[in-house]
Amino acid sequence: MAMAGNHFVDWLGRGLGFRPIVVLVWKAIQWPVVLLFAAIACSLIYHFGPNLKRRRSWQLLTPGMMFGALGWLAASFGFRMYLHFFNDYSATYGSLGAVMILMIWLYVSGLAYLIGGEINAVIERAECAK
Question: Residue 105 burial (CB < 10 Å; 0-12/13-18/19+)?
Fold first, then answer.
């Protein structure tokens, strides 16, 4: 949605004859919707991911979830900018360049999620120690 959303909406707007205001509204709400989906995904991962005998109550807004979602979006955007200006992976790795790009993006995404989960774990441990 974030990467191909603008191109898709422009194409759909021309094909279906949408007014320019509809396309503009879509482009305006695109990033808040992406942030909402990333926040819900982080929250669900942090709730169902740990192998716990006793489930905690589900909380949508936690500091780790906010860091994980914003960190993931920032890392994805930064990696996209890096690839836009310095994309020489196919020259270096040949046809495996796309696989290398995917592996690096997955690594960066996993790192953002893990740091957010660690933030939540430290806060929970501090609450239990009180």
Answer: middle
Burial 65-92 (b: 16+ CB within 10 A, else e): bbbbbbbbbebbeeeeeeeeeeeebeee
Host H or E run for residue 93: helix 89-93
CB 99 within 8 A of CB 128: no
pLDDT tens digit string along 64-123?
A: 999 999 998 898 888 888 888 887 777 777 888 888 888 988 999 899 999 998 998 898
Kindly give the interhelix angle for 97-129 and 63-86, rounded to the nearest 10 degrees: 160
**How far apart, in whole angstroms, are the C-alpha atoms of residue 127 and residue 27?**
41
Radius of gyration of the chain (CA): 19
Query: Which positions ≥6 away from 12 have C-beta within 8 Å?
Result: 18
Alpha carbon 104 to chain centroid, angstroms: 14
What's the pLDDT score for residue 67?
Answer: 92
In the chain, the N- to C-terminal Cα span, in Å, equals 43
| pLDDT at 40 exceeding the cut of 80 | yes
